[in-house]
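Figure 2 data, in text form.
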Amino acid sequence: MSESKIVICPACASANRVPVEKLGAGGTCGRCHAALFQAAPLTLTAANFDAHAGRGDLPLLVDFWAEWCGPCRQMAPAFAAAARELEPRMRLGKLDTEAESAIAARYAIRSIPTMILVKGGREVGRQSGAMPASAIVGWARGLA
């Protein structure tokens, strides 16, 4: 029997079992039929954060940011480019620290932008400051 991964749907946060060899093929959610991978960071909120961080088998790279932050806005295109390169082996998401201050406090975010890599519900790496896409990809792959 082939190995499979639990992939959380970016639209409805349902868990989907996907064979590892079919991760690259994309696929759709068994519940809402949305694409499981969009080659773009998803918006993380209190409603879906714990599902992506704790229930899914894919590592979750979170960009903690805020609208008023110049370096955050500057890094946004690089983070989006990294998503195109890192999916489907990793999920990338953006969490607005102003809108989701409780989650930012849970992870003790003191400066932004800060990226945290979460695997199995646990933080495995943290990097603060804006980075180009190639550095984001290299750093994330080194930890995953």
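Caption note: The longest helix spans residues 70-86.
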